[in-house]
Design a protein that fits this description.
Length: 163
């Protein structure tokens, strides 16, 4: 198991045992795992972000701490967050694919839905002679429309996890 995975697993175990929030000292955690505090920062930034359903707060200094709060959201709330906060007016193919991967990892979409979404935002689907800016705007609109459709379906199913 990679170090990042171990740190993530450790933090998620603490969150599961106690409550929806946990307070940690970055230096103590780094010492426990025998790594630099920057490795802890990396794990927090990549695995405990709002996209993954967490909010992290930190206070630096001698008495500094990291607070990680699990934000309980329904699938449709997470989808709406993605639409409103992540996509914007334009999105590149790489970022769109990463977003689709996150949705699949969070079990908000199935593998089949992910494959269709990737195809819809692919360079091949948008291989028309127009500037890249316009392709990215079309890709953003396409992503938003697909996510709105999924959010509606999710709400109609009573907010149950999709997948």
């Amino acid at each position: 198991m990679r170090l990042s995975d171990s740190i993530e697993s450790f933090i998620k175990t603490l969150l599961a045992e106690d409550a929806p929030e946990v307070e940690l000292k970055r230096n103590e955690l780094a010492e426990y795992f025998g790594c630099a505090p920057s490795q802890i920062n990396y794990v927090l930034a990549t695995r405990f972000s709002p996209d993954h359903g967490y909010i992290t707060e930190s206070r630096r200094g001698g008495g500094g701490y990291i607070r990680i709060v699990r934000v309980v959201q329904t699938g449709s709330q997470r989808l709406m967050y993605m639409i409103n906060e992540r996509i914007g007016e334009a999105i590149g193919e790489g970022e769109a694919v990463r977003l689709i991967q996150q949705l699949m990892e969070q079990e908000l979409i199935t593998q089949g839905e992910a494959a269709l979404m990737r195809a819809a935002v692919s360079a091949q689907a948008l291989s028309i002679p127009i500037p890249e800016q316009i392709k990215n705007a079309i890709r953003a609109r396409t992503m938003k429309t697909m996510l709105l459709t999924l959010a509606r379906q999710n709400r109609e199913q009573g907010g149950a996890s999709h997948g």
